[in-house]
Specification:
By secondary structure, the protein is α+β, with helices and mostly antiparallel strands. The chain has helices spanning 2-18, 22-33, 38-44, 53-90, 109-123, 137-140, 172-182, 223-238, 291-296, 313-321, 334-337, and strands at residues 127-128, 134-136, 160-162, 165-167, 187-196, 208-219, 244-251, 254-263, 280-289, 304-312. The strands form two sheets. A seven-stranded mixed β-sheet has the order 1-5-6-10-9-8-7, sandwiched between helices. The protein has a three-stranded antiparallel β-sheet with strand order 2-4-3. Strand 7 (244-251) and strand 8 (254-263) form a beta hairpin. Helix 1 runs antiparallel to helix 2, helix 1 (2-18) runs parallel beside helix 4 (53-90) and helix 5 (109-123) crosses helix 10 (313-321).
Length: 340
């Protein structure tokens, strides 16, 4: 049995020496050290040996196994290094080849408008607040003074997931959530994000669009603060010569409420096809936060007041850059995108 073990060692080491791939080495390991290999057969036959021979043969068998295993591992490392060198040589890059031209990208036009407005309002002391696009009826409507069956809900028909869960129709729920978290403290925020309504898709409407809403709550906030803020915004976005006009309107969230117009940037207020002969273009809505909304959010409406406004990002982009169809923003046509 000693001679058999020594012969197995010689044969195994010779096969390891000539093996040139990891697969071949693995085959050698299975052949000699596997469960059905000759080493296992020798060890199984040790029961037939005498008590004196058994420890001697066992020690030799362990040395042979260890020798084969160590030689295998060393040869595997050598083969790995050889294979790596060959792979690196095959993948050598020809640095003399001309480089490939890359074209720098740019932000989407809507993102450019959002960034411009965020920079403006952050400079005025506002913080940016965000919230979920899948909202509950409580935050999307009820906390904004729109109880169930309120007729104003018809203007914001949305995509419902369940009876109490829907895709938000405006970013106003972020305002409601922020007011609740503020615990009656002053806030000054803008809320950018996507909103969803079941509108017909045409040149001026989309089932999905972008909004930026603003909210200020503090002591002694008045309509004059709202007007002054919107004048700064309009002049920043459309030019210093622009003027604004406030018209009475209705929004459940605010009281009083206003529609905000700017003087036409094409005709300067004289009347043209862009402003439909009026000299003014409607751009957004706003007003003073309704006392009931403040109270639902934990504010004392006898001491605190606020204003809110909502801006359609697509409408701002369309007016500023003369885009005639809202669908251009979403079709990913490079002929349109590359203009901005």
């Amino acid at each position: 049995m000693k001679e058999q073990l020594e012969q197995l060692q010689v044969e195994a080491l010779e096969e390891i020496k000539v093996a040139s791939t990891q697969k071949a080495l693995n085959d050698v390991r299975i052949k000699y050290l596997g469960k059905k290999g000759p080493m296992t057969e020798v060890l199984r036959g040790m029961g037939k040996l005498s008590a004196e021979e058994r420890p001697v043969v066992g020690e030799l068998a362990n040395k042979v196994r260890a020798s084969i295993q160590e030689t295998l591992e060393a040869r595997i490392e050598e083969v790995k290094a050889i294979e790596l060198e060959a792979k690196l040589a095959a993948e050598t890059i020809d640095v003399t080849l001309p480089g490939r031209t890359t074209f720098p990208g740019n932000s989407h036009l809507l993102q450019q408008i959002i960034d411009e407005m965020e920079d403006l309002f952050v400079g005025l002391g506002y913080t940016i607040a965000e919230g979920p696009e899948v909202e509950t009826d409580l935050y999307n409507f009820e906390m904004l003074n729109l109880p169930k069956d309120h007729p104003a809900r018809d203007m914001q028909d949305s995509f419902y997931i369940t009876d109490e869960t829907l895709l938000r129709t405006h970013t106003s729920p972020v305002q409601a959530r922020t007011m609740l978290e503020a615990n009656g403290q002053p806030i000054r925020i803008i809320c950018p994000g996507k909103v969803y309504r079941r509108d017909e898709d045409d040149a001026t409407h989309s089932h999905q669009f972008m909004q930026i809403e603003g909210l200020v709550v503090d002591e002694s906030i008045s309509m004059a603060d709202l007007k002054g803020t919107l004048e700064v915004f309009v002049k920043q976005l459309f030019g210093e010569s622009r003027e604004i006009r406030l018209r009475p309107s209705f929004f459940p969230f605010t009281e009083p409420s206003v529609e905000v117009d700017i003087s036409c940037f094409k005709c300067g207020g004289k009347g043209c096809n862009v402003c439909k002969g009026t000299g003014w273009i409607e751009i957004l809505g706003g007003g003073m936060v309704h006392p009931h909304v403040l109270e639902m959010a934990g504010y004392d409406s006898t001491k605190m007041s606020g204003f809110a406004f909502g801006i359609g990002v697509e409408r701002m982009a369309m007016l500023k850059h003369g885009v005639d169809d809202i669908r251009h923003f979403y079709t990913n046509d490079l002929r349109f995108i590359e203009q901005f």
